[in-house]
User: Fold these one by one.
Assistant:
Number 1:
Amino acid sequence: MCRLGNQKDMYVSLNRIRVAGAKIFGCRKGEIGFGFNTTFGINLAAFGLPLNAGDEVLLPDVEFPANVYPWLELRNRGITISFVNNDRGRFSVDLFRNALSKKTRAVAVSAVQFFNGFKNDLAELGDLCKERGLFFVVDSMQAAGCEPLAMKRWKVDIASAGGQKWLLSPQGTGIFYISDEMKENLRPPWRSWLGVDWGADWTDLINYGRPFEQSAQQYELGTYPVGHLHAFAWSLGFITNLGLKNVQQHNHALLDTLAAYLNDEPAYEITSDLCKRHRSSILTFTTTKADVRNLHRRLVKQGIITALREGSIRVSVHLYNNTSDIEALIGALRTAAKGN
Ligand SMILES: Cc1ncc(COP(=O)(O)O)c(C=O)c1O
């Protein structure tokens, strides 16, 4: 019997997603909703926050475009979008503080920058935002599933992550976090019939006086991709059962081995910040001798999957990698460095 369409199973999976999502984001279960990708939650923020003409939103100048285009659209509403300049791919809290103006109303930043793995100071940024009465939005795509997160403690208002990367889930899945406190301020940019509290009774559909769900579920959109939900629930359960700290430890240990090799080899230069507070499960490096594009092509040909991002080779290691993968990468780099 195919149970994929079973309504009860669907709600079981949704509940699992919310329970695991709360562990991943470090918040309450009722603050987690199912989105379809990172963009979903960023749009909820951009078009749901009470921003008005004359206000300003501040973004780092090297954000992944998912956390840029929804904000840029606000220019049509008279809202200014300003960028904080990076310092060699890094950001200090002072860079943000100095970029704030009297008009700034929101700061939207990635937990981990996509191109070099720089982990931002979310705790300190959260303090800064609350001190100044600013909304704080976090694109968590490159952190959710591999770095422990504490959105509630860090005073984040809205966060969002697609499932298709570190959460090991199908494309078309994602979670968003919206703090209980934030709900009071939000002007939802959309409404959905499944965001209403039906009390599991669908026999009175044309009674339009139903209240919205109190939880983040009220911002979810219509009928769910049920097959995806089951896969998503399973993956999130798998990751949270392992424990985010253990996942992080596994990934960082593999990158330590790679970093030790790269630091010793003059042909390469690490471009990530590997200090404890700013490192992540992403390490990037470039070549001092050869062309970085050729090196990347060479690795791909050998079946070593890395990404070329903004002039560096990006190595993203996760649960499916082990020391033999890192040894294979080091072996290939060693050969390339010798010019063979
Ligand atoms: C920081 C960051 N945000 C968002 C995304 C993707 O956004 P979405 O899940 O909406 O496709 C990526 C990369 O795929 C990313 O690196």
Number 2:
Amino acid sequence: MHQTKVKVAEDALDANTTIATANRADFDRAGVAVVNLMSAPGAGKTMLLERVLAERGDLRVGVLEGDVQGSIDADRLSALHVPVVQINTDSGFGGECHLDANMVRSALADLKLADLDLLVVENVGNLVCPAEFRIGEDAKVMICSVTEGEDKPLKYPVMFRKADLVIVTKTDLLPALPDFREDLLRENLARVMPEPRCIALSARSGEGMDAWLAWLDAVRETLAPDAAPGETLAADAAPAGELRSA
Ligand SMILES: Nc1nc2c(ncn2[C@@H]2O[C@H](COP(=O)(O)OP(=O)(O)O)[C@@H](O)[C@H]2O)c(=O)[nH]1
Ligand SMILES: [Mg+2]
């Protein structure tokens, strides 16, 4: 019985990988960089995206918005005049807690990939499942806000291990969090991430945004035709910096 369950799960992941590969081929053909944004609900994915859109009017950005229900975030982002496609995982997908490659593929028909430089996929807020499902992305970015506690990398290691970058956000709140230990968060990240890469920022104040925008540019540059195959994404991304300002 147990073995059957494991086999079904493996087959599902294999099927997902096949579709993710097809998505990836479409993204490559269109020359669009794809970033999969993941976090717990409320960590600040949408606000961070709003910041990117506000600061980088030169980039042609599209968004795939994943939610179990509703279009609250998609409506927020559409107001900024970018193409946004909503994916609701409870309409025909059984209320899933993550996006998979097939859901993304179904939504691609509503986007003109060739008109985009960057496609950001805001995954469903969840700290377990999204990491297991490739969607054809170039990079996985994990957002962790300072109010979530330093122990999250140890409690949800897969999400952090699979991330190409961790953004520690809401740093503007640090003055109200005297118990937050930056050194502990960094230590915990290093325990689960093979190559810890971390950018601290506040989407609210804008502090630290430059490093994140530079990282996004580095992802796009990695896709340039003369980039070496298999080149590490954004190898120069800043290591974990000081979170509290002096
Ligand atoms: N103080 C502060 N609040 C933030 C920041 N980023 C997001 N928030 C707030 O956190 C809440 C959830 O943000 P949202 O972007 O919707 O999170 P999501 O569920 O991950 O998309 C909202 O009340 C935001 O205003 C930040 O950098 N600083
Ligand atoms: Mg959101």
Number 3:
Amino acid sequence: MIGFLGAGRVGAQAALEVASAGIDDVTLVDILPGLAEGEAMDISQKIAETGVDVEVNGSTDFSALRGSDVVVITAGLARKPGMTRMDLLEKNAGIVAAVAKEVAKHAPMAVALTVTNPMDVMNYVVFRKTLFPKGRVVGMGGILDLSRFKSTISAMLDVSHSSVTSLVIGEHGENMLPLPRHTSIGGVPLTKLMDETQIAQANETTRRVAIDVISKKGATVDAPANGVVRMVKAIAWDRKEVIPASAFLEGEYGVEGICIGVPLVLGAKGVERILPLDLDDKEMAQFLRGAKTIREGIASISSLL
Ligand SMILES: NC(=O)c1ccc[n+]([C@@H]2O[C@H](COP(=O)([O-])OP(=O)(O)OC[C@H]3O[C@@H](n4cnc5c(N)ncnc54)[C@H](O)[C@@H]3O)[C@@H](O)[C@H]2O)c1
């Protein structure tokens, strides 16, 4: 069973996609009375017509998460136009600290998949509050940044999305690190097809695009939900998929004691391996800037930990 803690925009959309794809039974939990139940009813009625036989339930009671193999955490506040992810820090830390304890209590064997922003800091809060082994705590951010980088590059070069293979790591925030040096267009290095100015423009667009969406439609929903579904599938089907995602580091990439985005192997056990990568000086500096921001975020909520 896949649990969704938070049945707001991203949680409900991801739950809809997980159920529609028949990945597993779904349970939504939200503190807002009626919301999770209503979403569950709506999704159930959809899949009844399309002929998918999974069970979908909703509740305000955290114990409904019992038996979850994965719990997707989207509980919390979302950004409004003009806000950075870090602006949500204090409020969401309190919410996430509380719900993480519920995950540990009711779904002690689950993989916790953190989505709430600022995601890397919240992923650390989940790690500390669930007391789960580090492999069973992972955060969604890199796959979303990657989908935005791919979308930008394919538009700039007028090539199909599927021709672009790339990687975005680091903080899921202002210091995200798109990696043009590790990007290829059907095997042709990106650096052969774009000059430095164009690459800088692609990086900047990728960084900015989420706030553009928020200012136009109020929230980012479809692309984040897709990232969640991709990760849920990797875990539920033990796909051992290589995905950039937030994990607790103990020296990898020169970083220790925080969660940040790195390429990792995602399977039934959660984070099964973190893959190494050679970063040049400029890339490493950006990665470490992100790590510093996350560390400062964690320090500012230390009283909650
Ligand atoms: N990691 C990413 O890439 C990414 C992408 C998009 C959004 N987000 C983040 O995900 C979070 C959710 O976004 P959204 O647009 O779905 O927001 P939303 O406001 O639509 O939904 C959040 C839900 O959480 C619920 N909630 C609040 N406190 C709760 C608690 N204690 N227990 C259970 N439920 C609780 C609310 O009732 C609400 O339904 C935000 O923090 C947003 O910034 C992250």
Number 4:
Amino acid sequence: MGEVASLALFDHHCHGVVAEQLDRAGFEALLTEGGPAGRWGGSRFDTRVGFAVRRWCAPVLGLPPHAPADDYLTRRADLGPAEVNRRFLTAAGLSTLCVDTGFQPRPLTTPTQLADLAGAATYRIGRLETLAEEVLAGPDPAASGSGAAGFRAAFRERLAAEVDQVVGWKSIAAYRAGLALPADPPDTTAITAAADRTLTAAGPGGKIRISDPVLHSFLVHTAIETGKPVQFHVGYGDSDVDLHRCDPLLLTDLLRRITPSGVPVMLLHNYPYHRQAGYLAQVFDPVFVDIGLAAHGVAGRTATILAETLELAPFTKLLYSSDAFGLSELYHLAALLFRNALTTVLNAGTDAGDWTPADARHLARLITHDTARQAYRLGRHPQATDL
Ligand SMILES: [Zn+2]
């Protein structure tokens, strides 16, 4: 299965990277979901992803594998962010990127800049909560109304205005309310009451934060009506996530309700609930899964996570994403670790006689890009050929 290394990847969930120089603290803060190194954690380089950077990223910057962290950061600074980002985005071997632009705690490269760096096609994913918060913050003179009473109609108008500019939507309900969302579309009275509670909690001129399960459910159902895929953050994330409320099985009722629409639902990351996600992908036709951020999170253990995901998930329901954010190293690492893991899993099946080499080649093409291209209804990009 040498050919997995030669297949361009369709990265269906990722973010921009930092375009300015980073010092050691800034680099380490972006390396794991733990944020800046604290009093007790030591260096973030002493993690699986930190060792993976030294092993796999150092050679891309012209250093030997396992170069010390200080040497790595000095070399990174000498080359400068533009060259570093170009090298890692190119090394990732990507055909297509779907970029979530809804989370910008600091300036990040735009989808257009990522396209130039990666030599790949880029598309936007619209973050539902960000759009809803902008609508609630109104007043938008073009909307049907403002404030809680007009929210339902104004949000629908906002999605209709955005739908041609995105290839899909993303819900971060996991970060705000957990995944036990109401299955049925909430009625207008419930939506207005929830919007009113949200505005009251923010106070006059305060920052609006959608975190009501009724509103998250409304946003998802409205997004599904547009016919474009909806991504859910599931499982592993930073300390804002209440991980015990992020088991994707909590979405079961909602997924059952959505399934007749046939609109794809993408469960992102999933770790440590990747087996549960694999089950959902088997029993609900429009549900797809990836291991996303878990690849660089667990680094050398990626093949185990991937094999466990594929215990039940149909091979036709697995997508690739990096969830790279901030550091261009994460684009390269996620791609490399995923390719290695997929090769390991497919070779194991071939060696065991579970499938033929021809079957493995077919699965590799599906998983690296063909499935995603179909689910997002994108034509084949001219550069989306083999590397
Ligand atoms: Zn993300």
